[in-house]
């Protein structure tokens, strides 16, 4: 993208000296470092945004193995989420994880029988058990002693406990959507749990026949059972062929830092409901049969009137509210297509081009979220930008740093 992209080659020497922690483990704090690889040296370090960089191996192929899940259950740690999917936490930085003894009466052992027997035994007159989700294994932590064939580590589950209160001292249900202060590993695990538990709650009925569905595959699939309390149910196409399972959804969303054609300004917008002087990059949902690049161009033009040419993908960020995947991009406005016009889509209240040097200065200042007041040191003429936990911040940082990276959160 313009001259700065051609300068990437000269940055290889700089990249080879950088240390970047790619994966964070809950148990020991061990890391994997990708910085010495060829691609990191060529393109720069990978940017791992907030809500990503999970410390656990999901071992997704074992989710249907009830022998594995049953063995893991009594040695597992459990994330607890309430009716609004807020997690029980020890502090603003750390989640609380319960032992099996704390939740045993609540969940029992749903993996004591194979899945096909569980589905066949479905009985709608019985109470619906709490949704239980297997998150994965922290392979760096062997303190539990769990081992199944060649797989070992600390197993983690998440449970939708509703209004049940475990009455654990010094804990609270934290509104994590407004308070993005969790350590990286806990934030990533929460994103996985919150997204899947929310999906389960929205899909308790079959979209084909309207009957109740059953959660299987450790909380990552739902099926329409053929019987209820031993009686055959009406025929349903969802039980035939490739239609027999409902999978979780992910909504692709583009978010983009758009630079002008000569590369010295970046486009920012603000919505009417945002705090005074708060600006961010533009964003919008991808539509069916639309590429990422096309979505960037369409959303930018619809919201601001600016016409975009070249688009490159920078990084991505899961956003579990409820199930978005933010695809961070950098785009270049076409010469002659930089005039701002807000008359197409009323989403933005204001939009303007800002000098990248000014943006660099604003990024260096303290930042606070949308729900908080101005940061310390904020003065007349400044603008507020998203904090480093937001991918918008990372995109602006990349633009300010010649497109070659972001900030370690």
From TrEMBL:
GO cellular component, one term: peroxisome
Keyword Chaperone: no
EC number assigned by the record: 3.6.1.22
Family per similarity comment: Belongs to the Nudix hydrolase family. NudC subfamily.
GO biological process, one term: NAD+ catabolic process
A GO molecular-function annotation: metal ion binding
Cofactor: Zn(2+); Mg(2+)
Reaction equations catalysed: a 5'-end NAD(+)-phospho-ribonucleoside in mRNA + H2O = a 5'-end phospho-adenosine-phospho-ribonucleoside in mRNA + beta-nicotinamide D-ribonucleotide + 2 H(+)
The protein, known as: NAD(+) diphosphatase
Enzyme class label: hydrolase
Entry superkingdom: Eukaryota
Domain Nudix hydrolase: 248-376
Coiled coil: none
Keywords from the named record: Hydrolase, Magnesium, Metal-binding, NAD
CDD domains, alphabetized: NUDIX_NADH_pyrophosphatase_Nudt13
């Amino acid at each position: 993208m313009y001259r700065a992209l051609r300068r990437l080659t000269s940055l290889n020497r700089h990249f080879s000296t950088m240390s970047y922690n790619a994966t964070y483990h809950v148990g020991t704090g061990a890391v994997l470092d990708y910085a010495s690889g060829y691609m990191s040296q060529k393109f720069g370090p990978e940017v791992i945004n907030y809500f990503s960089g999970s410390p656990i191996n999901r071992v997704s192929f074992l989710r249907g193995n009830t022998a594995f899940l049953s063995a893991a259950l009594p040695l597992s740690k459990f994330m607890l989420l309430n009716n609004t999917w807020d997690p029980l936490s020890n502090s603003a930085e750390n989640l609380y994880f319960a032992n099996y003894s704390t939740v045993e009466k609540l969940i029992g052992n749903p993996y004591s029988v194979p899945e096909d027997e569980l589905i066949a035994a479905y009985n709608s007159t019985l109470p619906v058990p709490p949704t239980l989700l297997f998150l994965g294994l922290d392979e760096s932590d062997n303190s539990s002693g769990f081992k199944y064939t060649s797989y070992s580590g600390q197993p983690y589950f998440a449970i939708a406990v509703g209004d049940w209160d475990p009455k654990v001292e010094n804990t609270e249900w934290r509104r994590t959507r407004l308070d993005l202060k969790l350590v990286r590993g806990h934030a990533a695990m929460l994103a996985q749990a919150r997204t899947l538990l929310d999906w389960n709650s929205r899909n308790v009925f079959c979209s084909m026949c309207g009957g109740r569905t059953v959660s299987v595959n450790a909380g990552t699939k739902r099926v329409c059972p053929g019987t209820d309390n031993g009686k055959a149910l009406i025929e349903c196409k969802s039980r035939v062929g490739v239609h027999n399972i409902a999978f979780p959804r992910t909504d692709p969303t583009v978010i983009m830092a758009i630079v002008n054609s000569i590369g010295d300004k970046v486009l920012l917008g603000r919505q009417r409901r945002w705090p005074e002087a708060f600006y961010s990059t533009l964003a919008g949902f991808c539509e069916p049969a639309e590429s990422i690049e096309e979505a960037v161009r369409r959303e930018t033009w619809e919201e601001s009137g600016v016409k975009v040419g070249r688009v490159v993908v920078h990084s991505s960020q899961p956003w579990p509210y409820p199930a978005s995947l933010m695809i961070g991009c950098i785009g270049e406005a076409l010469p002659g297509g930089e005039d701002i016009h807000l008359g197409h889509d009323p989403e933005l209240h204001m939009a303007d081009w800002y000098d990248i040097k000014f943006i660099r200065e604003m990024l260096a200042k303290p930042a606070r979220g949308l729900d908080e007041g101005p940061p310390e040191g904020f003065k007349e003429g400044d603008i507020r930008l998203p904090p480093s936990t937001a991918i918008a911040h990372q995109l602006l940082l990349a633009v300010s740093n010649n497109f070659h990276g972001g900030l370690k959160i």
